[in-house]
Specification:
single chain, alpha/beta, eight-stranded mixed β-sheet, four-stranded antiparallel β-sheet, globular
């Protein structure tokens, strides 16, 4: 097991944002977290590489290759971050340094982690850029590139040190559909061809069918359902998962939206956090929250219907 997250709770001061997350990522696996904005997807991803702001408090265990990430000091986590675990952030324009050439920004990773010369690092960067078909932009600044090109630079930065786990946080949010597919295909090939693992964070459940191996559905910081991609698409159990899938355009049906909004974490419903928006709610849903129940091997759901 490459990554094992056990009883992860994340607090903002005294407010619990993430509650009791338990999941594992195997070597060579693409594990996805899906849910609406505000469900806790990015917080979960940032906690794995210890990039949460100081006002957040983590309780639980994040075990990566036998090391508990939250217990590591700053020096120890810097050795892992970028080299063993890397991250592709949502908006490359705000993640890249606007006054440095993109080639040098990628080469910096090699200089820091492998203590090689600037010349050698730039040569290796040029090789990687050629592999990603962006060799012509190595001496460009971020503002001179399109969104798709900037995202390819971010991918280059994420894979240049050959990390075992890549965290892709909404890697295609600001891109058009054609470029989105190209970026996801590129990530898929990099992960599967080189036997790496990826945590793919997205709000768009539609893209997962071609890329993910396993899916965890988050809502208000709680796991609603977790299972293989086949189980989630062919036999979705939780009403929230079903509602997300109903938002996918289909020729034979009208798109159905999900009424209401994610609840305020300061004032959560007494029972199931999803019941105010659920069309299957009953009296049990309003009284107490359901526990996560395994309905078949590896397929878990949090709902009073099961």
């Amino acid at each position: 097991m490459l990554l094992n997250v056990q009883n992860l709770n994340i607090y903002y001061k005294d407010l619990k944002i993430i509650e009791n997350l338990n999941f594992q990522i195997k070597k060579g696996e693409i594990f996805s977290i899906v849910g609406e904005s505000g469900s806790g997807k990015t917080l979960t991803g940032l906690s794995i590489i210890n990039l949460l702001p100081k006002y957040f408090n983590i309780k639980g265990n994040i075990i990566f290759k036998g090391k508990d990430i939250p217990s590591l000091n700053a020096s120890e986590i810097r050795k892992i971050r970028g080299r063993e675990i890397s991250c592709i952030f949502q908006d490359p324009m705000t993640s890249l340094n606007p006054v440095l050439k993109v080639g040098y920004q990628v080469a910096e990773m090699l200089i820091y982690h492998y203590q090689i010369s600037k010349k050698e690092a730039l040569e290796k960067t040029q090789e990687l850029f050629s592999k990603l078909k962006i060799s012509h932009v190595i001496n460009s600044y971020p503002h001179q590139l399109s969104g798709g090109m900037r995202q390819r630079v971010m991918i280059a930065m994420a894979v240049v040190c050959e990390p075992e786990l890549i965290i892709a946080d909404e890697p295609t949010t600001a891109l058009d559909v054609t470029v989105q597919e190209e970026i996801l295909d590129l990530l898929y090939l990099l992960v599967k061809k080189e036997n790496r693992s990826m945590l793919l964070i997205t709000h768009d459940i539609n893209i997962l069918g071609e890329y993910a191996d396993k899916v965890m559905v988050l809502y208000a910081g709680r796991i609603m359902e977790i299972g293989s991609i086949e189980e989630i698409f062919k036999n979705p159990l939780h009403p929230y998962t079903q509602a997300l899938l109903s938002c996918i355009p289909r020729e034979e049906r009208q798109i159905r939206g999900i009424p209401g909004n994610i609840p305020n974490l300061k004032n959560l419903p007494k029972g199931c956090v999803f019941y105010p928006r659920c069309s299957y709610k009953n009296k049990n849903c309003m009284k107490e929250p359901p526990s996560l129940h395994e309905v078949s091997p590896g397929h878990l759901v949090r709902c009073w219907l099961y």
